Amino acid sequence: MTGRDMTETSPSKSNNDSPNIDWPNADWLVLEKLETLLAGRFDSSPEVSYVARLYAKGPKKIAQKVGEEAVEVAIAASSGTAEEIVSESADLLFHLMILLQSRGLSLSDVKAELAHREGLSGLVEKAARKNK
User: Fold this and answer.
1) What's the whole-number average pLDDT of the chain?
2) In terms of Cα–Cα distance, which of 111, 81, 107, 113 is closest to 94?
3) Residue 85 and residue 88: Cα distance in Å, rounded?
4) Domains of the chain with CATH codes
5) φ, ψ (nearest 5 deg) of residue 120
């Protein structure tokens, strides 16, 4: 996520003093807030917003960025520190959320799919996808 306006990121551990969020109980609220912020970037100028610049490039370019971030997570997981894994995972999730929004989807769609899969064996679920 190099080169992006840091005001467009979700809060990091160093930003836990925010008066607006009860961090120990925040759960996924921060993602919902980020999703709202990302949606608002559709109307921003690509010259002043990293997210707007990605939206302007389209879903294929955003998908490429998601792939790059996924590779960075894999590299961090295999040879990095816990801090690097968390940081790269945050980058990946950030870009995945941008990709979802660019295709008219949201975290709610992903949560619904996960809820649908709840209780299914991973092997059974994977086999069902192959038969579609």
Assistant:
1) 82
2) 107
3) 5
4) 6-105 (1.10.287.1080)
5) -85, 140
